[in-house]
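REQUEST ID: PR-0412
SUBMITTED BY: lab tech R.K.
PRIORITY: routine
TASK: structure prediction, single protein chain
INPUT:
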Amino acid sequence: LNQRATEMVLLDEAHSREITVSDADLEDGLHSIMADLGFSEFNHQNLSRLGIVDEKRFKTYVYDRMLINELISQIKNDMEGDDIERRIQLLIPDLYQNSGIQTFPENLRSPLSRRYE
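STATUS: complete
OUTPUT:
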């Protein structure tokens, strides 16, 4: 529950910073994941071999991860000092408080993440 709330806060911050992932970058990311897993292409058959039955949900998951990774990269670039990871962890509660997101289960589906439905 806490992890999903943190993800939503990070996605909200990514949206505030107008961070996006292009369709081409998403496709590259999907193909890269599949290549890392030993598959030559991203398709339904290969996803099924991995036990993934919902391609749209998988794409949404990868898209969200790419947004969060880009946000963290931008935050790291904005910060100075040696202990960047610790400083990011300290920043999350401030982002959470400013987001207005509540941690009730029915609120944990972020309206900000792109859905492939």
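NOTES: Residues 2-107 form one domain.
REVIEWED BY: pending
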